[in-house]
């Protein structure tokens, strides 16, 4: 049954979905990595597809930018389309000295400046954490492929252009492995509605050092991340 944001029917989505921010990335994933692909959503051009990877049913759909956007799509996918596993595949910035461009990071947890999880948790602090099995599978897939990976706490920011530049030194002191804009919201929605979630990111820029990947490097990093994400799906029982 269609929702205001997803025009599809139950059964159109697989139990596991990969979610990049950019809907054109979703199309790229479907065209490049999946077999027997069919498009299942185009509302607001938030493209969604279902296909298979090495025989395993997998869906892919964009989630937009920021916690409000990912929260809408994640909630509807879980409650209306019976999606059980949501894996965000995206990019992040680094602040720690030992995290470098092209590193793969996995968000075991996600801190945030957003109030969304306090709102859903009656004003209390919710520990926004990834599913353990999905995390373990992603680490195992990275190890199998020989891809170095760091696992730890992300920071999901509300503002891409924050006026609080001193924030980054605080994040560095607390060991944050990556700064992005969605994981804490995704984890909160998954906890509320009984699904499993994970965030995997490629480090595309180093905030405190002012370093950036080139367009070609971003594509290489994205493809490497996708191999890890898809191989991790195969490991999931």
UniProtKB/TrEMBL annotation:
Q: Any idea what this protein is called?
A: Purine nucleoside phosphorylase DeoD-type
Keyword Transcription found: no
Q: Which residues cross the membrane?
A: none
Which processes are annotated in GO (biological process)? Answer: purine nucleoside catabolic process
A Pfam family matched by this chain, by name? PNP_UDP_1
Pull one GO CC term from this UniProt entry: cytosol
| Described function | Catalyzes the reversible phosphorolytic breakdown of the N-glycosidic bond in the beta-(deoxy)ribonucleoside molecules, with the formation of the corresponding free purine bases and pentose-1-phosphate.
Catalytic residues, chain numbering: 205 (proton donor)
Q: Which chemical reaction does it catalyze?
A: a purine D-ribonucleoside + phosphate = a purine nucleobase + alpha-D-ribose 1-phosphate; a purine 2'-deoxy-D-ribonucleoside + phosphate = a purine nucleobase + 2-deoxy-alpha-D-ribose 1-phosphate; uridine + phosphate = alpha-D-ribose 1-phosphate + uracil
> Which residues are phosphate-binding?
21, 25, 44, 88-91
Q: Tell me which domain of life the UniProt entry assigns to the organism this sequence originates from.
A: Bacteria
Q: Kindly report, in one word, the top-level EC class recorded for this enzyme.
A: transferase
Q: Which gene encodes it?
A: deoD
Organism equals Oceanimonas baumannii
- Entry keywords, A to Z: Glycosyltransferase, Transferase
Q: Name one GO molecular function term.
A: uridine phosphorylase activity
Q: Which residues bind a purine D-ribonucleoside?
A: 5, 180-182, 204-205
Q: Where is this site: Important for catalytic activity?
A: 218
This protein's assembly is summarised as: Homohexamer; trimer of homodimers.
Instruction: Kindly give the NCBIfam families that the UniProt entry links to this protein.
Output: deoD (TIGR00107), PRK05819.1 (NF004489), PRK13374.1 (NF009914)
EC number in record: 2.4.2.1
Similarity annotation: Belongs to the PNP/UDP phosphorylase family.
Limits of the Nucleoside phosphorylase domain: 17-216
């Amino acid at each position: 049954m269609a929702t205001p944001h997803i025009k599809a029917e139950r059964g159109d989505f697989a139990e596991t979905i990969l979610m990049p921010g950019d809907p054109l990335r979703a199309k790229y994933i479907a065209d490049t990595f999946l077999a027997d692909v069919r498009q299942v959503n185009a509302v607001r051009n938030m493209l969604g597809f279902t296909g298979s990877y090495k025989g395993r049913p997998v869906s892919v759909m964009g989630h937009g930018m920021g916690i409000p956007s990912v929260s809408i799509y994640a909630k509807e996918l879980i409650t209306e389309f019976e999606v059980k596993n949501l894996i965000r595949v995206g990019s992040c910035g680094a602040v720690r000295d030992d995290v470098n461009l092209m590193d793969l990071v996995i968000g075991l947890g996600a801190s945030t400046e957003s109030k969304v999880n306090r709102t859903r948790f009656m004003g209390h602090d919710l520990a926004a954490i990834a599913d353990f099995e999905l995390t373990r599978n992603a680490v195992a897939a990275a190890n199998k492929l020989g891809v170095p990976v760091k696992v730890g706490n992300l920071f999901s920011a509300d503002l891409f252009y924050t006026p609080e530049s001193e924030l980054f030194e605080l994040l560095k002191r607390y060991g944050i492995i990556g700064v992005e804009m969605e994981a804490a919201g995704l984890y909160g929605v998954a906890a509320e509605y009984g699904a499993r979630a994970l965030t995997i990111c490629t480090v595309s820029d180093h905030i405190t050092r002012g370093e950036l990947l080139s367009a070609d490097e971003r594509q290489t990093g994205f493809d490497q991340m996708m191999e890890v994400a898809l191989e991790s799906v195969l490991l999931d029982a």
